[in-house]
Amino acid sequence: MIIGCPKEIKPQEFRVGMTPVAAQEAVAHGHSVLMETGAGIGAGFPDADYIAAGAEIAPDAASVFAKAEMIVKVKEPQAGERKMLREGQLLFTYLHLAPDPDQTNDLLASGCTAIAYETVTDAAGGLPLLAPMSEVAGKLAPQVGAWTLQKANGGRGVLMGGVPGVGAAEVVVIGGGVVGTHAARVAAGMGANVTVLDRSLPRMRYLDDVFGGQFRTRYASAGNTAELVAQADMVIGAVLIPGAAAPKLVSRAQLSTMKPGAAIVDVAIDQGGCFETSRATTHQDPIYEVDGIMHYCVANMPGAVARTSTIALGNATMPFLIALADKGWKQACADDPHLLEGLNVHAGKLTNYPVGKALGIDVLSASLALKS
């Protein structure tokens, strides 16, 4: 199979869909790898590294899309890239379709087959291709939140860990999954007083057992959420419903109960955000203010640490990438029901029920798409 990897064009996105190690592995399996020139520069991988791995270098994205049978990316294809997709071509990347009807309609119109990293599952019910970036985003969230809290950036001017005689920042993390756990650990490590809100009692027991000395847990009822948000210096949104739009857990009305200059970090912004006032921002212009509350809603947070993120993502995606290339998508998905869960679009049909529900589009089951 000819595997193509274009350079990411989303603003301030420095990651790359394939590492030289992944390219070398694909070539060793008998496949061809076509990299757009400069695709890996932002993550610290020059073209020479890919050439040494056996890949070819293409002069532009159009050449990659025209020749490749499978396109491997990091972020969802942008409007110009979607125009280059064709019927029967395989796309393997993050999609986050639920809050993005324009992308969804373009993918359906292209006739391509699109497998989304974020809906591939594993035997434990986890999301193995989302987890590495969730870990990165979770660890980044308190770091960027602490920056947002600085007075020069419009924040309250509160130091996360305080100093002797001055209390530490109060941090609330909504969601105790992968993002929330890593966010809570880092925020607590910075010296903040941290509370994690979650609705799963088994998950809260786990967090208490493993991290009980580092942060507190509370049940995520509407009342508890409202109480803690009002007391917080920083609120980190870390809620995920696989494939679906994120639920809005903090309303605009609640902003008036928060401390002036408090910081909101919405890690769920890729799925539409879990605060009513959230809108996607970029690394170039990451924060904005609503009713005196500072919002950090960068939609590709892990892109800020592109090398770490690229290597972590490559480690996770490589086995699936090789399976798709070795077997073709139909056989690979037939052999692995967890990979089949990643199928979002095929031949003009939507194949993911949460996305269909969010966008009001009829869905063809992924299992039926295999037989089409």
Quick summary of this structure?
This protein has 372 residues and is an alpha/beta fold. Helices cover 37% and strands 16% of the residues. An 8-stranded mixed beta sheet has the order 3-2-1-4-5-6-14-15, with helices on both faces. The protein has a 7-stranded mixed beta sheet with strand order 9-8-7-10-11-13-12, sandwiched between helices.
Explained architecture:
The radius of gyration is 21 Å and the shape is globular. By secondary structure, it is α/β, with parallel strands linked by helices. Helix 1 packs parallel to helix 11. It has 15 helices and 15 strands. The model has no long low-confidence stretch (mean pLDDT 96).
In terms of topology, how is this protein built?
Layout: E1 2-5, H1 20-28, E2 32-36, H2 47-52, E3 56-58, H3 61-67, E4 70-72, H4 79-82, E5 90-93, H5 101-110, E6 113-116, H6 131-149, E7 170-174, H7 178-189, E8 193-198, H8 201-211, E9 216-219, H9 222-231, E10 234-237, H10 252-255, E11 263-266, E12 287-290, E13 293-296, H11 306-327, H12 329-335, H13 337-340, E14 343-346, E15 349-350, H14 353-359, H15 366-371
Parallel strand pairs: 1-2, 1-4, 2-3, 4-5, 5-6, 7-8, 7-10, 8-9, 10-11, 11-13
Antiparallel strand pairs: 6-14, 12-13, 14-15
Helix pairs in contact: 1-11, 6-7, 11-12
